[in-house]
Structures are given as C-alpha cells and as structure tokens.
Design goal:
Length: 300
C-alpha cells in the first residue's frame, strides 16, 4: 500500500515548485533553501510513495506517478484556499487554470470571462492548446479543467458534453479562383498544393476536408503557422492560405466578400468539458460558466 503524504505538505509544495520552475536550483531559490535540501525533500516523497516522481532532466520531467501527485497537490491547494476563506468569512483570491483552444476562446468561450469577472475573487489563467491535445495539461495537473475534443475521461476527472463547433473551409477570393482553376484541370487533387494556414503544430483540422476527397498534401506545400485566432482570420483575408474558421467568425467575412467558402463542407467538432472530480465552490462557478456559454455559442 502506497503511503500518501498528506501529512507532508512541504514535500508536495516542493514538488510543485520543482515542476513549475523547471529545476531544483530554481525551486531552491524560490524557497530560500539549498538545491540539496530540495533534492532531499523530493527523495523523501519518492521514498514514501515507492516510485520515482521526477526525472532529473533539464528542464525536469515528471513520471506518471509524479503527474498523479501534482494533480493531487494542486487540488489540495485549492481546497486549502477555499477552507481558509470560509473560516475567515471572506472571499480571497483563488487561482484557476483552464485549458482552452484558440477557436473556442475567440468565439463561444468569451462569456466565461465576463462571468468569472462578475463573481470576483478568481484569478483566471488560460492555457491555449489544441482541443485534440489539451488533456495532457489535465493529466499533469496544470489545469483544473479543459475544453477538449476527447470524450474519454482522464483518471480522477469528469467529462461533460458541451456541444459542437462548426467550421467552414475558407480562403481569400483570389485563392478561391486559383483553386477552381486548378480543379478544372486536376480535379480534387488541386487541394494538395493549396497554401495552408495552421494555428499551431498540432493543428490537423483541415484533414477533415482533404481525407474525404482522398487528397494527400504534396511535399513542399506552403504552410504558414499563425498562433492567433484573430491573426489567422487576417491571414486568410490577406490571401496567405486557406484554413477552417468557425462559422460564427467566418460568416461576416463571407458576407463582406473578403472570405470565400472553398467548399460546401461543414466540419463539426464535438467539444467536452473535462475537469477534476472535486467538490469545490471555485470549480463549480467555472463549470456553470462554461456550460452557460456553451449553451449560447455551440450547436447541440
């Protein structure tokens, strides 16, 4: 039976600092102790749980066991903060870390910010990550909740349906003309060499347009990475390439003639809210806000 160190919060706090700061030395500087003292605390924690929790790399890495402890430590911090607030009869500042994809943040998720501001007492930290890869932040304990396209729950977490975000494949008018001319000659293979826009290294959403057409992107195709929701729209209008844009965002551009739908496809991406399985006032406020925003901005 593994000995869980709830009675050794110093060791758990040290683990969080080592991971957040990236090294034993940086954690030691924050704590005002020597790197050797930090190392001893981590070794004591590892001895208690009977497993290695930190990889001694640069920056430090975390093992599977370490991820479990980090998630637990962050939950403990939140509950301690809420308990202290209740005992003192006040509402203190509670940090909340959320993972969300750029398309959601740029569209339906925005009312969440207003709701959290109205409630007060919550310091919100948003971490941008592709909806196909945001669960890693939940597993590491970096976030208490994430917007994700993955329906399979992470251990110790709850998954709740939000709705679907719909996308159009769009490009500038000149790019649409270029595609049509190429399709007249090469058919659907014309998509293979069309310049592409992505928001990040994990962005593969345009595969939803290419794969049904049996199209394989050609080597050397121009791909531009624009790590900004608004910047991606600007890049489409500028003619830098084509991409998928949420319908609610693309519609005004299409109506104005600055974007053109390159096909009649509507790509549907189901989204879910995954969060810690924890009775927490702060998490409850956040979850209610996410569901309210999704009810207004996503398709059921």
């Amino acid at each position: 039976m593994i000995k869980i160190c709830f009675m050794m919060p110093r060791h758990m706090d040290t683990l969080l600092l080592v991971v957040d700061e990236g090294s034993f030395e940086a954690a030691a500087a924050r704590l005002g102790v020597s790197p050797s003292a930090v190392s001893q605390r981590i070794k004591a924690l590892e001895a208690d749980v009977g497993r290695v929790v930190v990889r001694r790399t640069s920056p430090v890495g975390v093992t599977d066991a370490g991820e479990v402890l980090i998630q637990t430590a962050r939950r403990m911090r939140l509950l301690e903060s809420e308990t202290d607030d209740r005992l003192r009869g006040r509402l203190g500042e509670r940090p909340v870390s959320v993972g969300v994809n750029a398309d959601s943040l740029g569209t339906w998720f925005r009312p969440v910010l207003t709701h959290v501001a109205d409630v007060g007492g919550i310091s919100l930290e948003l971490n941008l990550e592709d909806e196909q890869h945001s669960l890693a932040m939940l597993r590491r304990g970096d976030c208490m909740g994430v917007v994700t396209a993955e329906a399979e729950p992470v251990a110790g977490c709850v998954v709740e349906e939000l709705g679907s975000l719909h996308y159009w494949p769009v490009g500038a008018p000149d790019l649409a003309d270029e595609l049509q001319a190429a399709r007249n000659v090469h058919g659907e293979d014309a998509w293979a060499s069309l310049p592409l826009l992505v928001i990040g290294p994990h962005d593969r959403m345009t595969d939803g347009v290419l794969e049904p057409r049996g199209v394989t992107p050609r080597p050397g195709r121009r791909v531009s990475r624009i790590p900004s929701f608004e910047g991606l729209n600007d890049a489409v209008v500028a003619g830098l390439g084509w991409t998928l844009v949420p319908v609610a965002s693309a519609r005004p551009y299409v109506e104005a003639g600055t974007m053109v739908r390159l096909a009649e496809d509507v790509i549907e991406v189901p989204l879910y809210w995954q969060h810690w399985r924890l009775e927490s006032d702060t998490l409850g406020v956040l979850t209610d806000a996410v569901h309210a925003a999704a009810a207004l901005g996503l398709s059921s």
